[in-house]
Amino acid sequence: xxxxxxIETVYLTSAAASVTFSSLGSYEHLQIRTSGRHNSSGxxxxxxxxxxxxxxxxxxxxxxxxxxxxxxxxxDAYTGQAFVYGGGRITGPLTPDAExxxxxxxxxxxxxxxxxxxxxxxxxxxxxxxQSNSFIWFGAGLWDNxxxxxxxxxxxxxxxxxxxxxxxxxxxxxxx
Length: 176
Prior knowledge:
mainly beta; eight-stranded antiparallel β-sheet; globular
């Protein structure tokens, strides 16, 4: 039987520029579930940026597919970044309702394996974004480094995560 265990939950009681998970445990894979919003003056929805082990080098890549209202879609690819560009989605001040937080599930696969690069998958959604659209987003990222992941930094591109943003780190082991 597969096992999923909550490792740590962060509930923000005030704005925070970032969230770091550094007690990752010994699992096969990690998963981060977020419900988030930011306070940047830009105001629209934004990505959650991710860095592993404090690495600020230009060795992250990401590809994504997004859809607005189920019919407007686009795909993007980013290479040579100093962070995983699309580690999930958060809403901003222009989103109509202050209680409208975007949700994301981020899987970090085989994070302790020092014989390969670290990969991740994410899916995100929000019912009513800043243009009154529903929004879904899927992506895959790569950290071009074979080091085992020992810490995960999550942060918005500008501003801070707002109060009531929640992030939970889970560890996953498959059946033997």
